[in-house]
Amino acid sequence: MKKRITWFGVLAGVGMALGLALSGCGKKATDATASTGTTLRFGYPNMGSASDIPQGVVGWAYQRGLLQPELAKIGIDKIEFVTASGQMLNQAFAAGAVDIFTTGDTGGIIGRGAGLEVRLINIDMLNYNIYLVTRPDGPKTVQDLAGGKVASGFGANPWHFAYGLLVKAGLKDKTHIVNLPTSDSEAALLRGDIDAMAVNYGPIFARRGFRVLAEARNGDGPAGLFITVGGEAFLKKHPRFAEVWNGVIAKAVVEMQAHPDEFYKFMTTVWKMPEDVVRELYPLDLWRTAPLPGNGIASLEETKRFFLEHHVFRKDFSLRDWVAEGVPVGDAR
Question: 11 pLDDT exceeds 50?
C-alpha cells in the first residue's frame, strides 16, 4: 500500500500539505511491519499508477529485492512510499512528510529556486516524451491555439512543455495556460472550456480519438526529466545514502535492460495499460546507469535558465553546488 497526497492547489501552505499528509487521505507502503532503524519516506509523482510502489526503475529495484538489503546496510530498514501530484511533493517535503523524492525537473528546480533544502541525487529519467492533445473537433495546429486556453498543472513537466512550446511558437502572450491537472483537464477539454491540454500519456488519448498537436520528441517543446532529490538533514544523517541509492539504481538499470520483457510486464502491471503503449511511453533509454550524465546536466541547466528568463523564480543557483556530496557529474553512460 502507499500513502497518497492529493492535489490541493499549488499555493497551499505548508500547514495544508502537512494536514493532507497526516489526514489519512491515502495509504502507505512499507517493506516491514516493525522497525528498529530508520524509515525512509520516499515520495514519487502520482502519474496515474495503479500500483502501490513507484513506476520505473525505483519500483523495479524494490520489487526485485535489490533496494532493501543495501539500504539496511546503512541503517534504513523500512520504506514508506508517498505519492503526490505536481508541486505537492515540494510541499510534502517542506511539511516534513517525505525525506527523499523523485519529481519532475520542473518541480525540482522551482523548489530549489524557492529555497527548498534539498540536494540533487540523480536524474531518474531523461528525455521523457510529453504531448499536447485536443479533442477530435479541436484546433488542427498549434497556431490555431491563438486566443485560446491550454491546461496543465503548474509545476509539473507538462506545464514546462506547454510553456516552452507556446514561447517557441510565438503564442506566449496570445494563449493562456490554465492551472489544471490532467485529472480535471479532460472534462474541461470536452466541454470546450479549454482548447488543448499538455499530458504525459498521448498514445492513450490518441487511441480514444483525441488529436495530438505536438510532442516533445519532435522538438516542439522541452522534453521531460525526472530527478531524485534528498533532504539535506536526511543526507547528513545518512552520508552514504546517495552512493548506495545510485549504486542500486545502476544495477537495476543493467538488469532491466538485460530482461526487457520482464520489466515491461512489471510496468504493465503498475500502469494497467496495454503493453505496446507502455513500451512506447517508456523506452529503456530513459534510464541511465550514470546518476548525472552530461546531457542530463545540460538539460537541467537549460530548464533553469528558461525559468529565470521567464521569472518563474528570480534567484539563480549553481547546479554543481546543488548536487549531493559524492555524486559524480558528467558521466555520459
Answer: no
C-beta contacts of 307-311 below 8 A and 24+ residues apart:
307/109, 307/110, 307/113, 310/163, 310/167
Report helix angle 260-271 to 241-258, nearest 10. 110
Could you tell me the sign of the dihedral formed by the alpha carbons of 290, 292, 295, 296, in that order? positive
How would DSSP label each residue in 258-283?
Answer: H-HHHHHHHHHHHHTS-HHHHHHH--
Most confident stretch, 42-46, 80-84, 280-284: 280-284
Q: How far apart are CA 194 and CA 172, in angstroms?
A: 16
d(C-alpha 8, C-alpha 12), whole Å? 7
Confidence label for 86 from pLDDT (cuts 50, 70 and 90): low
Distance CA 229, CA 264 (A): 26
Per-residue pLDDT of 141-162, as tens digits, reads 999 999 999 999 888 899 999 9
Strands 76-84 and 3-5: parallel
- Determine the length of the chain: 333
Picking from 168, 219, 176, the residue whose alpha carbon sits closest to that of residue 197 is: 176
Q: What pLDDT, on a 0 to 100 scale, did the predictor assign at position 31?
A: 40
Give burial (CB, 10 Å; 0-12/13-18/19+) of 125: buried
3-class DSSP state of 104: strand
pLDDT average, residue stretch 9-16? 32
Task: Please state, in angstroms and rounded to a whole number, the distance separating the CA atoms of residues 106 and 154.
Answer: 9
The CB density around residue 238, as the number of other CB atoms within 10 Å, is 20
Return the percentage of the chain with pLDDT > 90, whole number.
76
Q: Cα(100)–Cα(83) distance, rounded to whole angstroms?
A: 12
Could you give the CA distance from residue 89 to residue 194 in angstroms, rounded to a whole number? 26
